[in-house]
Specification:
The chain is mainly alpha-helical. It has 16 helices and no strands. The protein has a domain of 179 residues: MetI-like (MetI-like fold), CATH 1.10.3720.
Length: 323
C-alpha cells in the first residue's frame, strides 16, 4: 500500500510540470505586453523596457520558465499579480475557504440526495418513480447553471425577497449558490447510482443473499450499494475538484469572492500570473482529489485492496525465486 501511495504521489510531478509548461507557452504566444498592462498606456517606452527587465521578460523562455519553477519549488509562490501587486499564491489561499464552503456544501447536498434517489430508481425500475427521477436527472443536467441562477435570483431575491442576491454575509447567502452548483452533480449521480445499482442487483451474490432469506433492505444497502459506489465516488471526486478549482460562473453571478471570481477578474484584466496561478492550482487540486479517490476505493471495495496485496505478493514471489 505504501509503495502504491508513493507511486501515485510521484505521478503528480510530471502532471504539474506539463501544466506549467503549457500555461507558460500560452503566455509567451500572447500578443499582450505585461509591462504595458502594469504601467498603463501613458507610460514611456523606457519605463516599459525597465519593467520588462525587472520582470525578467527579456530573458529567453527556458530561463523564464526555470526561474518560475525555481520560485515555485523554493517558496511556493506562483508569481506576483500585475493588478494587485500581491503574491498569487496568497491571493488564492485567501479566497480558498470561501470556495471550499461552496464546493463541500454542494457535494454534500448532491451526495445526500443522489444516492438514495438513485437506489430508489434502481429498486423501482420501469415504474413511474423511476421514470420521474430519470426525467428530473436529464432536465437538471441540461439546464445551464447561469440561467438557473438568474431565475432563482429573480424568484427568491427580487420577487419574494426571502434570500439575498449576492455576497457571503450569512447562511442565507449560500442557499441559492449551493442549489445551483449542486444540481448538475445531483443529476449525474442519480443516473450513475441507478445504472451501477442495476448492474450489481443482477449479480449472483445478490441472488444468493436473497435466497438465504436476507431482508430486502439489507440486500440492497449492504450487498449491492457498497459494490456499486466506485463510479459514484469517481463522479463525486471530479465534481469536488471542479468546484474547489473555482466555480467560475456561480461565483461570478452571485458575487462570491472565491477562486472562481478571482480567475474571472484575472482574465478580464489580462493578469497573466494570476491566470497561470489559477490554472496550476486547479491542476493541483484535481490531482490531489484523484489521489484521495483512489485511496477511497481501497476502503469501499475490498477487491481493490486484495488486488494491491496480490500484486505485492506476486512481486515478492518473483524476487524470492530470482534470489
Amino acid at each position: 500500500m505504501l509503495r502504491y501511495t508513493m507511486q501515485r504521489i510521484f505521478l503528480l510531478i510530471p502532471v504539474m510540470l506539463g501544466v506549467m509548461v503549457l500555461v507558460f507557452i500560452f503566455q509567451y504566444v500572447s500578443p499582450d505586453d505585461p509591462a504595458l498592462i502594469i504601467l498603463g498606456a501613458h507610460s514611456t517606452e523606457e519605463e516599459r523596457e525597465a519593467k520588462r527587465d525587472e520582470l525578467g521578460l527579456n530573458d529567453p523562455i527556458p530561463v523564464q520558465f526555470f526561474n518560475y519553477l525555481k520560485t515555485f519549488v523554493t517558496t511556493g509562490s506562483l508569481g506576483t499579480s500585475y493588478r494587485t501587486g500581491l503574491d498569487v499564491t496568497r491571493d488564492i489561499l485567501r479566497r480558498l475557504p470561501t470556495t471550499a464552503i461552496l464546493a463541500f456544501g454542494s457535494v454534500i447536498v448532491s451526495v445526500l440526495l443522489s444516492i438514495p434517489l438513485g437506489v430508489l430508481a434502481a429498486v423501482k425500475q420501469y415504474t413511474p418513480i423511476d421514470s420521474g427521477l430519470l426525467a428530473f436527472s436529464v432536465i437538471g443536467n441540461c439546464i445551464p447553471n447561469f440561467w438557473l441562477a438568474l431565475l432563482l435570483i429573480t424568484l427568491f431575491a427580487v420577487n419574494l425577497r426571502i434570500l439575498p442576491t449576492s455576497g457571503i454575509g450569512t447562511w442565507k447567502h449560500w442557499v441559492l449558490p449551493i442549489i445551483v452548483s449542486s444540481l448538475a452533480t445531483l443529476s449525474q449521480q442519480i443516473r450513475l447510482t441507478r445504472s451501477s445499482m442495476l448492474e450489481c442487483i443482477r449479480q449472483d451474490y445478490v441472488r444468493t443473499a436473497r435466497a438465504k432469506g436476507q431482508k430486502e433492505w439489507i440486500v440492497v444497502f449492504k450487498h449491492a450499494l457498497r459494490n456499486s459506489l466506485l463510479p459514484v465516488i469517481t463522479s463525486v471526486g471530479a465534481a469536488l475538484g471542479r468546484l474547489l478549482g473555482g466555480a467560475i460562473i456561480i461565483e461570478a453571478v452571485f458575487g462570491i469572492p472565491g477562486v472562481g471570481l478571482y480567475a474571472v477578474e484575472a482574465i478580464r484584466y489580462r493578469d497573466y500570473p494570476a491566470v497561470m496561478g489559477c490554472v496550476v492550482f486547479l491542476a493541483f487540486v484535481f490531482s490531489i482529489i484523484s489521489l484521495l479517490v483512489d485511496f477511497t476505493y481501497v476502503f469501499v471495495d475490498p477487491r481493490v485492496k486484495s488486488g494491491l496485496l496480490g500484486k505485492k505478493k506476486a512481486s515478492f514471489s518473483k524476487t524470492k525465486l530470482s534470489a
